[in-house]
Amino acid sequence: DADVTQTPRNRITKTGKRIMLECSQTKGHDRMYWYRQDPGLGLRLIYYSFDVKDINKGEISDGYSVSRQAQAKFSLSLESAIPNQTALYFCATSLPGTGLGETQYFGPGTRLLVL
Amino acid sequence: QKEVEQDPGPLSVPEGAIVSLNCTYSNSAFQYFMWYRQYSRKGPELLMYTYSSGNKEDGRFTAQVDKSSKYISLFIRDSQPSDSATYLCAMRANTGNQFYFGTGTSLTVIP
């Protein structure tokens, strides 16, 4: 089984709809992240959480919100989807501290299309 | 200026060639340097990890970091069609919580 799972894997929605993307992990990592990936722009950080009570905005948090329901679960919501939120969304996890633990482990991604 | 710059390619090489992938960066505080490989429709997976300057070798892959030039490289020897993917560099500082990613270089190895 995959260590980091994302649901759904693909989603088509309409402008103005609220949608939620979910991420679960079995790695036991405290730190979780949401990124979006766009051609030519690379990975951009939306939100990150270092534990259940810690939520932080990334560089492009406008139009998004998150919920850390448990150590293993981190959800991303688009309050009112717009077409320029069409992208590939990735969840990632990491361990705190230095060394290899500070690298990130990614889920398989959710491909979102907003019409 | 972006924190991390990476040539997007695409790069196309024959099987068996040596491939060189590069990133430059502007923040001298970066200490941790990573290379991720991303196959089509998959999430990035960690390929190589180095701390500070120097070289690191793992099989056909060698990662180099030159902090004086703010330049990192990934070399792939005896490239294989299975190496065809997008390669992303990433880095972060000792302090702060953010990883900075390059935009990725698309590589195709032709049999």
How helical, in percent, are the residues of chain A? Answer: under 10%
Biggest sheet statistics of chain B:
6 strands, mixed
- Report how far the terminal alpha carbons of chain B are from each other: 38 Å
Say what oligomer this is.
Answer: heterodimer
Secondary structure class of chain B reads: mainly beta
Principal-axes shape call of chain A: globular
- Mean pLDDT across the residues of chain A is 91
N- to C-terminal distance of chain A:
33 Å
Using the CA coordinates, give the radius of gyration of chain A: 13 Å
Shape by Cα distribution of chain B = globular
Note the beta-strand portion of chain A: over 45%
Low-confidence stretches of chain B: none
How many H/I helical runs of chain B? Answer: 0
| Rg of chain B (C-alpha, Å) | 13 Å
Q: How much β-strand is present in the residues of chain B? A: over 45%
Number of helices of chain A: 0
Q: Helices and strands of chain B, in N-to-C order? A: EEEEEEEEEEE
Mean pLDDT of chain B: 92
How many DSSP E strands of chain A? Answer: 11
**Structural class category of chain A:** mainly beta
Number of strands of chain B: 11
